[in-house]
Amino acid sequence: MSGELIDIGSNLTHESFAADRGQVVARATQAGVTRQIVTGADLASSRAAAALAEAHPARLYSTAGVHPHHALSFDAGERAAWLALLRHPQVVAVGECGLDYFRNFSPPAAQRSAFVAQLEIAAAVGKPVFLHQRDSHADFLAILKEFRGSLTGAVAHCFTGDTRQLGDYLDLGLSIGVTGWVCDERRGAQLRQAVPHIPADRLMLETDAPYLLPRDLRPSPRNRRNEPCHLVHIAHAVAEIRQQSFTELAASTTRNAARFFGLNEPIGS
Q1: Residues 136-183: tens digit of each pLDDT
Q2: Which residues, 6+ apart, have CB-to-CB distance to 248 below 8 Å?
Q3: pTM attached to this predicted model
Q4: What CATH number is associated with residue 140?
Q5: 8 vs 146: CA distance, rounded Å
Q6: Structural domain of residue 89, as residue ranges?
Q7: d(Cα 31, Cα 37) in Å, to the nearest integer?
Q8: How is 33-76 classified by DSSP, letter by letter?
């Protein structure tokens, strides 16, 4: 499919999609977003994401992990449950995991412990990690450096940093996920400066739906809900910033995501 896109981060299990989830997937597919990675944030949502992916084979995949907000809920005694879930063929990465010192919904020490445990699991199962970092750059880097040689891959989900942070991540071998944050002329200025410096083979795209609705999307939905179909808008914005064609950007980011997560071709392609 010309211009095919992969959304590497959609929260389709979110309650805001409960009434029309199937239509949301259909709209995305019609728009050219033929495959999505549904994000898990704790054990329950990771299981729900895997079930959703199983119901849409070769269209949806999922991650399994504990977001730093929920780090206190991470139970090392549930390692067997996580390993079993990660053996599911539709579950393609460990995460969303990492550190978030902006809100500290879980204490930093608990966040670091859960993060390390999940990186150990990722190394054991040989699947890449889907990473979250906010206001915790130094600790985040220090922990990742300890696992540099044992991870099969890592992507900085929803990267919003500057060129210095980008350089730190690239030095560690990370891929970079870019969202509609780049479309915000107020908050996204430093990201817009960094985006041209992302190597073509490290860049992937995501909506983080239902969050991070592109600020410049017109018409803007009344409910302010972001959807995976809006990845097309984000891709056009990123292509313009990088001074390349939409077709070229779509081809490279789709190729990167398919390789990184080991995805099958979409049904009907």
Answers
A1: 999 999 999 999 999 999 999 999 999 999 999 999 999 999 999 999
A2: 239
A3: 0.96
A4: 3.20.20.140
A5: 25
A6: 5-261
A7: 16
A8: EEEEEEPP-SHHHHHHHHHHHHHSTTTEEEEE---GGGGGG--G
